[in-house]
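Hi V.,

You were right to ask for the full record rather than a summary. Here it is.
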Amino acid sequence: MTSGFFDLHRFETSGGAQVFRLPLQAFPNFTTHTYLILVDDLIVLVDAGFGNEQSNAAIEAGFSRVGQMLGRTIRVSDLTHILITHGHIDHFCGLMYLRRETGAQVAVHELDLHILTHHEERLALIAPRLYQFLIEAGIPVGERDNLLNLYRFTKEIYRSTPVDFTYGARDMKVGPFEMLHIPGHCPGHVAIRLHDVVFSGDHVLEGMITHQSPETLVPYTGLGHYLDSLHSLEEWAGDVHLVFAGHGDPLRNLPGRAQSIRTAIDEKLEQVLGFMAEPHTIAETTAHLYPDQQGYNGLLVLEKTGAFVEYLYQRSLLEIVNYHQLESGQSVALYYRRISH
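Predicted structure:
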């Protein structure tokens, strides 16, 4: 029996759809959610989990538990659709397993299609970009290699898997489900609405600022895209009853949570500007904002800080004080300083 299995929760939408939240272990002490939805004649899974043995077993156990709750047999093989919210490994890696067990139609946004179907190619492209980012962020040589290996380790377990269609090809609709493109956390991130509920993936989470990467590293990410999408999601969602996130509890007050996220981001941006009254690298700024973060979490907060710095630099609130070193073609750590207006 998988840890967290009995945390399965059942919800019902205003249109009578049955929604079951299945908790899955992605990494140690890190749970992600997939959602099993029964609506009309469709049996739909929103996101596919991390794809490790525990995650796959939890999906199977969850289907069995749902069947017991409903008094009918429901198997993974009964799925009609698998809808991916975004191309991050803990949300799609389970496709490798699910593709063997079901003939369900798999869908994703076109900007994340390559991540699922040409994964090895994308990894080969992103790795050198990430290494260059680590240089410019001011990470020492030995630590760069460690962080790059950590990045690869979490991605190399997946192998390219076919997708049946993209949301754009279906006018952002699948049966009663409607999709909204909300880039920022991931290029092809979508929110999925069904009646009076929304599945938000990782775009809006309780208790934390959703991770962003610099858009120089991954297009359609970055803080600017994220904030624009947060506004679009609020308007599109309207007065939905519940927002189901990829991690944590459902949200009952999307506008309130969105405002608290904006406030938290503004506070971080002010901290960056205050620290960069004197020249500092992204690595130094990360250590100031997020002390004692190491390993893979250390890479995540480094990318997040890079997104903050990029956002401020794009808006002419920061300058690079050692830009002359770039003119010779050197790869160097960049030192940013607040511009006094």
